[in-house]
Structures are given as C-alpha cells and as structure tokens.
Amino acid sequence: MRYPIYQINAFSKGPFGGNPACVVPLTAWLTDEEMLAIAKENGVAETAFYIEASRKIQLRWFTPEIEMDLCGHATLAAAHCMVTHRAYTTRPVHFTTKSGVILVKVNDDKYQLDMPSRTGAEATLPKNIEYALSTKPKEVYKARDYLLVYESQADIEALQIDLDLFNQINISPGGIIVTAPGDTHDFVSRYFTPQASILEDPVTGSAHCTLVPYWAKRLQKSSFRAYQCSQRGGELWCEDNGDRVLVSGYAFTYFTGWFTPRL
Q1: CA–centroid distance for 142 within its chain
Q2: How much of the chain exceeds pLDDT 90, in percent?
Q3: By the 8 A CB rule, do 195 and 170 touch?
Q4: Contact (Cβ atoms closer than 8 angstroms) between residue 172 and residue 66
Q5: Catalytic positions, please?
Q6: Considering the domain 121-245 in this protein, what is its CATH number?
Q7: What residues contact residue 10 under an 8 Å CB cut-off, 6+ apart?
Q8: Is 206:71 a contact under the CB 8 Å cutoff?
Q9: CB-CB contact of 205 with 228 (8 Å)
C-alpha cells in the first residue's frame, strides 16, 4: 500500500526557511514501530500522522527517535496540508492529541495554534548542561524543557554547544530553550535537543508554550512578535491567554508525493 506524504515548512513563507515537517494522512493507525521507522526515513525533526474522523482529527507526532507529547510546527504543517491539499473545510481545525485538544484557526494564509501554556518554575541548571554551554545563562526555569535566559540577542546567536558533553544529557522528551530580548522582536530564542539526530530545531512551536508566559510576566504585555534565530529562522506571532498560548505563523509546501514502505 502506498501513502501520500507532504513536506511543509512551518513558520515560513518560502522553501528554505522555517521548520520542515512531513505530514502523512492515514485511514487507520500503523504500528508505533512503523511510524517511527517512517519518521526516521523522512529525516526531518517531526513527522505528523493524522486520521480524519468526522470533525475531530486524531494527530500524533514522531521524531526520528521517539513519539512526542506536543509539537507545534508539525501541527501547523498538518493544518496547512489539510486546508491546502486535502480540501478540508471545517474551521477551526480540531486536533485531538496527547496534549489534549489543539484548535487551529486559519486567517487567510496564516495559521493560529491554540496550545497549552507550560509555565516554567525557577530551577537550578544541572552541571552537565551548564558545562555543555559556551555561555552561562542569567536565569533558569524548568517546565517540560529547560528555559535559559540571556541578556541579548547577540548572546543567543553566539551560543555554542559542546556536542560530546551535550549528548551525555538525557531529558527526553524535553530540550533546552535559550532566549533573550530581541533587537527587532519582543524576544528571540533557539532550541536544542540532546541525544537527537537533529541537534538544533529550526523553529519550535511548543517551546513558545513556555516562552510566552515567561515574557508576558517580564514585559507585562500579552502579545508578542518573536523570532527563532536558528540558521533557517522563523517568525512567530504569540499571545498569552492564561492557561493557553496562541502561536501563529505561515507555511509553505516544499513537496508532495507518495511512498510505499516495505516494513
């Protein structure tokens, strides 16, 4: 049996920016082992698998290593796939996931994700993480991910990771968010995952579930324009909505096709 596949750049209007995700529509779930093997073969940060069931869409996310509990950019990619390529007309798009219901509103060509807020608590940075970073942060918080706060965008852009030390860390399924005030945006960030085939995630929607409540408290405002300053880069529009976080961005389809796994 062959399956349709779409590779979509989330948080980008073009072919070489944002965060690429593969989207695979299904009529019934494959085994976890099959979906993990497909995600590994795709070689991007996340592959989204979904089943359309009435007005509710069952959605799951797989990295090349594990199934994830939440992925923003692959959710945006799945919504773009359904609306642009699969003639899906129900609005908002209603996903049921391991992190509960995620609604996606479609405004022209921009997609707004409604995701759970994950406020970080003040924490002490483990020494094995500290030693892997070229610069120590000024503040440390912990939700699913560690949130490390720096003074400037230049600090974020210059930050380097000692890969040998970093890959000795096991915080799966979490990662390391680094952030600072932006030069032209309210804040900037980067995101790193130890023991993963892709060290730096280009644009991480789920990281903003922790970034947004932090910056809402610090800046005393609720709406933000954010930028993830990875090599590919991506722009996000965010809102703090109490126990929910709204994250918006664009999407671009890089390719569509079919594949036939021999599993």
Answers
A1: 17
A2: 94
A3: yes
A4: yes
A5: 46
A6: 3.10.310.10
A7: 18, 19, 20, 21, 72, 73, 74, 76, 77, 80, 203, 205, 234, 249, 251
A8: yes
A9: no
Locate the domains of the chain by residue range.
3-115+248-259, 121-245
**Tens digits of residue pLDDT in 176-219:** 999 999 999 999 999 999 999 999 999 999 999 999 999 999 99
Which helix H or strand E contains 81, and what residues bound it? Answer: helix 72-85
User: Which residues does residue 189 pair with via DSSP β-bridges, in sequence order?
Assistant: 179, 228
How far is 229 from 237, CA to CA, in rounded Å? Answer: 14
Residue with tokens 């976080």: 245
* Closest residue by Cα to residue 205 from 222, 228, 223, 186: 228
Q: In the numeric block, which tokens belong to residue 161? A: 């990771």
Cα 261 to Cα 263: distance, rounded to the nearest angstrom: 6
Q: Can you give the pLDDT at residue 88? A: 94
Token pair of 7, please?
Answer: 């590779």
pTM value?
A: 0.96
Distance of CA 12 to the CA centre of its chain: 13
Mean pLDDT to the nearest integer, 54-61: 90
For residue 263, the model assigns a pLDDT of 53
Contacts of 217 (CB under 8 A, 6+ apart): none
The superfamily in CATH containing domain 3-115+248-259 is: Diaminopimelate Epimerase; Chain A, domain 1 (3.10.310.10)
